[in-house]
Amino acid sequence: MHYRKVNNLLGWVTGAIALFVYISTMEPTVSFWDCGEFLSCAYKLEVGHSPGAPLFMMMQRMFAIFSGGNALTGGDSTHAAYAINAMSAVASALTILFLFWTITHFAKKLLVKKGDEPDGTQLAIIMGAGLVGGLAYTFSDTFWFSAVEAEVYATSSFFTAITFWAVLKWEDVADEKHSDRWLVLIAYLLGLSVCVHLLNLLTIPAVAMVYYYRRYDVTVKGTILAFLAGCGILGFVQFGVIQYIPKIASKFDIMFTNGFGMSFDMGSLFFLAIVIGLLVFGIYYSKKKSMVSLHTAVLCIIFIIIGYSSYFVAIIRSRADVPIDMTNPDNPISFLDYVNREQFGQQPIFFGPYFNSQYDEIDTSGKLYSQSKANGKDHYDIVGAKRVPIYKGNQSHFFPRIWDQEGNHVNFYKSMLNLADGQDPTSSDNLKYFFGYQMNWMWWRFFMWNYAGRQNDIEGQLDPERGNWISGIGAVDKMRGLGDTEGMGEGYTRNGAHNKLYFLPFILGIMGLVYQFNRKRNDGMVVLMMFFFTGAAIGIFLNMNPLQPRERDYAFAGCTYTFAIWIGLGVLMVNDWFQKAMKGSVGAYASTGICLVAVPVLMANVEWDDHDRSHKTLAHDVAHNTLSACAPNAVLFTFGDNQTYPLWYIQEIEGFRKDIRIINTSLLGIDWYVDQLNYKTNQADAVPMIWKKADYTGERANYIMYYDNPKVGLSKTQYINLADVCTFMNSNDPNAKVGTRGGNELNYMPTKNFFVPTMSKEDLVKNGLATAADTANIITDMRFNYPKESAYKSDLAILNIIAAVAKEGWKRPLYFDAGLRTGDYGGTGDFLRLEGTVYRLMPYKFVDSIKKNSPILGTINTEKSYNLFMGYTFGGGERNDVYFDEPNRHEFVTYRMDASYIANALVAEGKKDQAVKLLDKVMAGITEHSYYYDYTAYFIAAAYYRAGELKKGQELTKKIVRNSQTILNWAASLEDNNKDAVTFDIRQQFQVMQSLASSAFYSGDTSYAKTIANSMQRIQPNFGAQLKQNAPVAPQAGEEE
């Protein structure tokens, strides 16, 4: 059969296999992290977080239409998420399709002379290479994860694959007329891909190298110049097009509006007209002068900009004031901040500070603008400055890697680099962090997960038991300081991501690399360029600080894609060996078969369980459970992605509880987000605030310090109305400001003692906020103390909202997600009441000790919490065929802990039967398979003991103790110098066992308590150094952690 037909057919077959895999393992609804946001924004074309992905949103919206029902008109739908997730599966399958054709392109060049048709043996091994490499990437850890959820990385990978394939197609026809049309297509793909993710731009240097090797005589100097040209083109697109077009447009808009008195947008439109005019002239001039290269270059720029123009969707939809409107890019100024990711800050790359550097001055040349209309005229008002610290002299360093000055990050630097307090880091320390953390832990580890093996999916920070890459070869892993990886606790060995690949994909890839470089060095250089720019170069550019909130392997998917090319080409080397014993097609088929079994089949076998999400609905159920707990028209404070985005999804797409206003405290420090609280969203009313717009815009209220000003005359015991304090902190009265050393005058917080208006006990009962029986044990005097010495804008916003709600008579229920940071409650902890898994802020607090058996803060509404929990669903946690990764398990921790607190409160009220039913509900809903019994299950076991269920308490205790013993035995197998790295875990397991023994003893199970104690005594001598300081006993359920 003709090569082209076979190549096309088998490419589509490989893509179809990938599509089947991804559809079969795809999550049917919303996932954690950004997926809830992307789903919500796609379904109604809303505006996601910067720098946005407008083309991705439009593509998702197209797929959503096919979900049927109300999807066409954007009505409520329970099927749209499945359809949108399917887009990622389709994009990923197409990625595999183009990867297959990329591999066969290189394989053919290695085996067949140009212009010749491959013979049967050559055809078989070329197709085998494509099949092995394509399927290896199909089942690779990072790519498979993104292929089954509504994230940008699957579509971004598709653009990477088709762009790289397109330049290889150009290479095949470069001598033909009109071949440069492929280059124009590549430019268009690059422009489009910018509106999905910027990662695709990293293909540009490889594209430049293909162009150079095909069009020019190859020399060392030429190769270097081609590389520099590729980097230059990358910089031109990244900065010249993506950033400077909107930057210059914004400058024109300010000039035309403020200088010439014209309306908003006129300056931007004028600048865009200039750009269009210059490009049209470039086409006309190059065609007139027959300058083919210039003509092609101008066409490429035009098509990049056409693709980039998808961003107009973000501007248009932002002006529609959609419910989700991140950064509010509805004008040239805010749009510039949007594409520049101003929300996330900037990190230095080539020059900048170390963590202990002191800045010399603050650059205030960048201005903050706000649109206004005065006397019927548009105007941009300066409302502050963008303050950028400037480091000079020896305070600025070349290639700064240890740059972050946030407290926890500084501590990490010091710990990793063994720096004493006050000890200055050196350039060698900087490089040690670069190679040891950024290159090794934050890149190479991710790469090796895919092609060597993965220890588990527990996020770690250089510790030997969490998140490392492994090989599955015991001696090798132990040599790397990981101990006996098969002797770890159930949480590690039964972790679905405990995948052993025995280096086989890695070895085959190295063989392919060697084979290609030996026979086609130029092609090897092209692939190596792709590998570098999509791997190590990203690590250099991102310059990641430590303690990232999640694993960042998705950022490096491009290098695992590139390595899959070499995995495919490795089949050719294996075939050469086989041909010595089995000639012809038999050897080709045998080598392909062996490689298929050794690599993709092995990968599919060990990784299917942790990538199969087909029955998992936990993010959806958590959102449903959370919103179900809230009263009508409530305000709910959340924190971060996983507490917020699933809630957005279930409101925006499924239409559930759209009356609740969700406030993400992570965004409350940003003006545009506070602005949006002033408007009604869906069925949720605007949020009451003491603030007016001028009080928080720009630099106002960015940071307020507490200052006990003697001129104000407040006593230490005096409590002030919070609404008055909020007004005072924004006042221009001289008494409301204090001078600084720099000559500035700043507002301050005059007291940390606040009170807010409450209700009488009769009104509390009348309004359903308390029962008649409760009134005997409550205090309605709502006084509280702010717990910090300063407040950021987000803190002040929360205080403003509390003050305004109280001022309006507590008509608006206020809730806090139980996962918020302690400081986010503003000091109101005593007035919080747990209802299910959320806290409700009440205008009273309990004094009866019976009511104080509570989780960390406030009290528990046992009746409501019991009823809520009995109706909760756990996203498939009741099944034994669903795997839950770490972010999912975090949610299970919340349910286990809260259930134990509520059960203990029920026991204290004499309701032991309800307590046991509640615990049984959670145990059935979160099985041992879904989340093994670790220290979090201790609280359930202790609650069983307190409820009098000694048998259930002991059964659970035995499993927890067995797990702790296994972990301690593994820790004992470590070399002494590695034991210190797991000191926390060692102490934690002893704490758990000690606490379980205590619970068993005080519940009358003295025999088993003694058994646990004896077990601890036997293993304790292995950890003398780690247990020098007595660790505190683990907290009892219901007590403060």
From TrEMBL:
Keywords: Membrane, Transmembrane, Transmembrane helix. It comes from the Bacteria. The chain crosses the membrane at residues 7-24, 80-103, 123-140, 152-170, 182-212, 224-245, 266-286, 292-316, 501-518, 524-542, 554-574, 586-606. InterPro entries: GT117_domain-containing (IPR052724), TMEM260-like (IPR021280). The keyword Cytoplasm does not apply. The keyword Zinc-finger does not apply. This is DUF2723 domain-containing protein.
